[in-house]
Amino acid sequence: MLKKLFVFLIAILFVAGISGYFYSQSKIPNRSGEIKLNGLTDKVTVLYDHFGIPHITAKNDADLYRAFGYVHAQDRLFQMEMMRRLSQGRLAEVYGDKLVSIDKLFRALGLESYAKEWLTAIESRGNSALLNTLDSYLAGVNDFALNGQSPIEFDLLNFPHHIYTRDDIASIAGYMAFSFAFAIKDDPLVDHIKQKLGEDYLVDLGINYTPGFEQIPVDPIKSKLLTESVSQTLEQLVGLPLFHGSNSWLISPKRSESGKAIFVNDPHIGYSQPSVWYEAQLKSDNTDIYGHFLALTPMPQLGFNRDIAWGLTMFENDDMDLYAEKINPENHQQYWAIDHWATFKTRTEVIKIKDKKSIQFEVKESRHGPIINSTFEDNLPFPNAVSETEQPIALWWAFKNTDNLIMEGFYDLPRVKTVEEAAVVASKIHAPGLNLMFANANGDIAWWASAKLPIRPEHVNSKMILDGASGKDDILGFYDFKYNPKNINPESGVLYSANNQTADMGNGLVPGYYAPTDRASRITELLATQEIHSVDFMKKMLIDSQSKTAQLFQKIALPILNTGKNNFSQIELEALTLYKNWNAEHQPEQQGAAIHNRFRMSLMKLTISDELGKEYYPSFQFSFLLARSIWRILPNEQSIWWDNIATADVETRDQLIVSAWRESVKFMANKYGNDLKEWTWENEASVVYQHPLGIQAPLDKIFNVGPFPTRQGMETINNTSLKQVGDDLKITMGPSTRRIIDFGDIENSWGILPTGQSGVVGDKHYDDQALDYSLGKFRHQYITEKQVRDNLEGELVFIP
User: Fewer CB within 10 Å, N side or C side of the chain?
Assistant: First the structure.
């Protein structure tokens, strides 16, 4: 009997497995054959190469973008839907109440309503070519959404069908702009430090605060709570990309082995699955581009052809300000506006929640922007902890306060050829701030810091919460684009950007959240090692993992640790030998990398957590402020941060370095044992590309990709960021692609994605690039029909 039951259960599992296999295979994108596509005027051919990348050829743009919309959707429809819901505050409808706080934030930002205003402005400017492109692309997306196979995620979450619109495209563009901004996360943090600890503590943080200047008094408890709640809210964006930084450098013909310009770029974005970029080659009578596209976006943000190549890094300029408004004590619907009581604009937002009743909340707007307090209340320790009626905080954002021709700019960019034409495009990018990197077949290399830069009063530190009542801290206007930082065909023959501070163009340094010197210094160091550069050397540079911060730690800490007065244990001495001999690189087998990162974390926590508080320090631990502050605090033996304010004694830098060393070695021994061979970077940090459904077992085993060993370090060229989860370190971001285009050999251009081209689980292109990416390898980006046909996976033909 038991034997029969066992056989029966095995049979059931076998049938279920077979059924599951055929179900998942039914979702695989169609990459060969013939499909009738409504609205076409002629045949469109799509050649898929062996990485699943479509190379689309049509006779006109209308047919081209219609077909592109279809193939993009069949690979990435779930990603499109998630980005739409995120940007418009509609995640709780399908995920439940745990994402209400995210929905509140994006409803308050008002991206969906702003999208309508933005598109109306584009229509008024008569840009019919752009609008026609949006409509053709959307027609293709919607054709697949209504008639194609629904993604597995749609079936699991019971997603309703949606007809995608221009508003959806513009809303997602708004989300991507928001993801570039640091102010909403870091300004309350800086303000809290100033309010609680005083001006002296800002000196080593690189805040550029002017001591003695007036600041509106803000309750330090409330600024602290606001920072905690912002951080907790944004941490819920698991599996959805946030932009973090980037590298790019350009080599002129006189410094290039091929005698032509070389273009290099690797934007740093939060890891997610599927990959943030979708690659496609588009060809028609008016278009010829190999591009990298964001979800539900027909204009490539990165791209190249035989004439030009361009890419982006984050400018990191400060384009958000937080204003503390003064409420009318007799009428909470009013706030003080320079010389009178003004009435808040209000709107009621209704958030639908899966399996629960909908909730309503009121969004108030002052003359500066939306009041953001209530959007974070769900992550506060008690109700009304940051009450709108006591301390309303308004968000001013350049993205919603400029003409913002960014969509027109990215539509024009694939069609320019000269530096002069590219400069016009650069002037159209108002927000978010981007470093536009450009090279062409003529040998030009150029960089523009593209943004509409606000003119702030001289006394204003934009990293503080500002006075919203008096008008003294208000934006005065915007600088003309001619004052923006730029560099065209420099005499040195090289250009680079690594999110570092731009030089003064005559109107002062641009305020921002700039990266520390590490990556920029390493890039210039490597470029200076030889006069003439090859593509192979560019590949080595892109995967370089040597840390300048680690070298700074070694320079300062090793003499202190090596004094012989510390009475170290045997294991502490063995670890010290490994650290001393470490080359500051981050390879999987290296023990020095693992030891350093724990030592760094221990030292910074001992240095700063007593001032900020243990419950608050995690908001600071991996922020841009800490990365910049290390370079000011560590060399400064007299820094105010070294003393532990919780003790009567005055602690010194040397004492904290020794204590941090002992603490970090003890931690490693407890976690891995006394065999230092186990103390490797591979064991300490690996990368998992997380799908939005992969946050819950057992779906993580189905939808997530990884783990893979990492060859990245914090603020190395091959960059990453870490997050501490319990005792483990989780890698959260890195290069979203690595691209090399040599105009002397344009048909052998190189790229790679972190996981794969497809967003369809079970598809071989879901993760077929992941191993090569982790190993620092590259693949060809094919641009000729012969190359594609020599590496052909399938041919799909769309007919009217």
Answer: N
